[in-house]
């Protein structure tokens, strides 16, 4: 074979993984894999379970691994406690978050951890709640507790601290009130309670980590007792969301996980470091479980980036490399996306067996990869950004105008319920922006099932009535843009609405006031394609009415985008407001005037 061809083939095979084809046999990727590759290229995947060291080098390495795998956001579950540092300096949590936010804004979210130093004091519960509140104030996206409860942490008298100790109830309760999800690890694989010898199926792991072995009944409670104690906590706090990590801490027993998820609507399960175990089960049974609980399962790896890189688990072997990480992620995708049978899993130290893939449909994959996490973390996700592309020449909105110009601008999506953050992918609405010295142009592409509008339309006046329900333009189908040109005064912004009939409305908002007499003279063009079930709306908004100072390249304004679709009872937002109103300027995203 010619050496160039050979080299290409070798590099193709070696590079199998990451953004490259997922299929192992070189066959063409299935449509599902192609769709998932697209999500990876767009960095839409969220890894809900990572542990990242607190140095520049650790963060840089984590980003390199995430970029190669197509992971957009990593959730660092061990960002530390809020206990002040030496001489009252910033806490570990503050230092870690600050460094990550400075170096890689929008790429990491941080969970706060609890400091148990005051456990034996009478006011522990109160102090612990204060820690949680402080963590929330400092920007924690959630609260993580690990397996130390029930296995390692002991009180002053030497007794193990249990997860269902009533002293912790105020903590779980407060997390729910603050909308702070809890990720919780209890117990460990079943084999860690079985005899400590080379017949143990987890021997490779256990021989390098004696402290992971809990088979001594004088020292440790039985495994099921730990699982049951967590189950009591989850049941006692229905308003708190518990992400039970490592596939609900019981990947050996799918029926148990199924029953626990069915019993506790406030419980979710992450996949961290357990695909090797889940993958041993009958793939048809696993697939059924994933379909049944598709809203409650979250993609997560347990990747640990410290001086040693750990991909799910490790022992004393030579540490994993970045190339190993690519293979690891490729195997995660392969298990979820293909129907491959009987292949070697991604964390060999966890045991000598093969796994079989479960071939999930794209509609379920996107929930597990990012939709479920986006809803769970909605409050903490980075502000989205829309880059408006500069054009040198203005154009009239005209049915016959060539639409290809729009394609040069990167789109954003309006696809989340504004109140809950839940995704509605069927209605996913693409928005692109262009700008010139004179105008801001917006283009919405709206898939629909059935349009709801006022008939006949009134284009001679603005249709609204703040006193009466159901008679204003926004009570039927519309697309909307809220634009804040003055970051110093976010409560002051303009609002634009257009219906599929091209009825339109504009107003100036100065919360709580609304000025409907204000007129921007904006223009709009609507096209309804009933064959493709797509309506599009273009807006051309004069910049001079929005701000006296014209924007220039690099100018940042506030923006939120909405769509109402009555047939589907949908009130969708680009950045969900998480309340019953669209008028939440704190939740605006960013409009960037770019080249
Ligand atoms: Zn972990």
Q: What can you see in these coordinates?
A:
With 595 residues, the protein is an alpha/beta fold. 25% of the residues lie in helices and 22% in strands. The chain is built from 14 helices and 26 strands. Strands 13, 14, 15, 16, 17, 18, 19, 20, 21, 22, 23, 24, 25 and 26 form a 14-stranded mixed beta sheet that branches. A ten-stranded mixed beta sheet has the order 8-7-6-5-4-3-2-1-9-10. Strand 19 and strand 20 (504-510) form a beta hairpin. The protein is globular and about 85 Å long. The two termini are 47 Å apart. The relative contact order is 0.09. The model is unreliable at 1-21 (pLDDT under 50).
In short:
With 595 residues, the chain is an alpha/beta fold. 25% of the residues lie in helices and 22% in strands. Bound molecules: zinc ion (ZN).
């Amino acid at each position: 074979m010619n050496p160039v061809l050979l080299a290409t083939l070798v590099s193709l095979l070696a590079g199998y993984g990451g953004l490259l084809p997922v299929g192992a046999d070189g066959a063409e990727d299935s449509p599902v894999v192609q769709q998932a590759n697209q999500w990876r290229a767009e960095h839409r995947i969220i890894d809900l379970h990572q542990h990242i060291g607190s140095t520049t080098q650790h963060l840089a390495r984590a980003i390199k691994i995430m970029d190669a795998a197509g992971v957009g956001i990593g959730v660092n579950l061990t960002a530390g406690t809020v206990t002040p540092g030496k001489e009252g300096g910033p806490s570990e949590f503050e230092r870690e978050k600050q460094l990550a936010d400075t170096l890689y804004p929008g790429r990491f979210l941080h969970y706060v951890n609890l400091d148990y130093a005051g456990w034996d004091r009478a006011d522990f519960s109160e102090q612990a709640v204060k820690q949680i509140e402080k963590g929330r104030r400092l920007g924690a996206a959630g609260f993580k507790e690990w397996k130390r409860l029930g296995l390692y942490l002991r009180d002053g008298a030497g007794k193990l601290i249990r997860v269902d100790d009533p002293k912790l109830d105020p903590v779980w309760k407060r997390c729910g009130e603050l909308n702070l999800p809890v990720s919780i690890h209890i117990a460990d694989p079943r084999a860690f309670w079985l005899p400590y010898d080379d017949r143990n199926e987890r021997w490779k792991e256990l021989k390098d980590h004696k402290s992971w072995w809990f088979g001594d009944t004088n020292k440790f409670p039985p495994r099921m007792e730990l699982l049951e104690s967590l189950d009591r906590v989850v049941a006692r706090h229905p308003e708190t969301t518990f992400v039970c990590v490592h596939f609900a801490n019981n990947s050996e027993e799918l029926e148990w996980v199924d029953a626990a998820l069915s019993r506790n609507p406030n419980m979710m399960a992450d996949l961290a470091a357990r695909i090797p175990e889940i993958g041993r089960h009958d793939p048809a049974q696993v697939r059924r479980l994933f379909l049944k609980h598709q809203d409650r399962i979250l993609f997560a790896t347990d990747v640990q980036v410290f001086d040693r890189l750990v991909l799910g688990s490790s022992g004393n072997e030579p540490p994993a490399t970045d190339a190993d990480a690519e293979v690891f992620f490729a195997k995660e995708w392969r298990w979820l996306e293909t129907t491959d049978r009987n292949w070697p899993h991604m964390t060999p130290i966890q045991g000598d067996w093969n796994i079989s893939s479960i071939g999930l449909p794209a509609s379920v994959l996107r929930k597990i990869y990012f939709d479920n996490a986006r809803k769970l973390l909605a409050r903490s996700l980075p502000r989205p950004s829309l880059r408006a592309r500069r054009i040198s020449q203005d154009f009239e909105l005209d049915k016959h105008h060539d639409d290809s110009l729009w394609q040069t601008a990167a789109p954003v999506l309006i696809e989340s319920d504004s109140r809950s953050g839940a995704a509605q992918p069927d209605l996913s609405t693409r928005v692109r922006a262009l700008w010139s010295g004179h105008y801001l142009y917006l283009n919405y592409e709206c898939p629909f099932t059935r349009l709801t509008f006022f008939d006949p339309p009134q284009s001679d006046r603005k249709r609204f009535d703040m006193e009466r329900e159901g008679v204003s333009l926004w009570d039927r189908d519309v697309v909307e843009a809220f634009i804040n040109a003055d970051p110093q005064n976010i409560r002051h912004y303009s609002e634009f609405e257009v219906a599929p009939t091209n009825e339109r409305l504009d107003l100036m908002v100065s919360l709580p006031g609304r000025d409907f007499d204000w007129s921007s003279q904006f223009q709009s063009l609507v096209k309804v394609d009933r064959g493709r079930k797509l309506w599009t709306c273009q807006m051309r908004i004069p910049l001079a009415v929005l701000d006296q100072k014209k924007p220039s390249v690099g100018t940042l304004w506030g923006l939120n985008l909405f769509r109402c679709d009555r047939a589907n009872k949908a009130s969708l937002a680009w950045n969900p407001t998480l309340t019953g109103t669209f008028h939440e300027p704190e939740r605006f995203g960013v409009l960037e005037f770019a080249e």
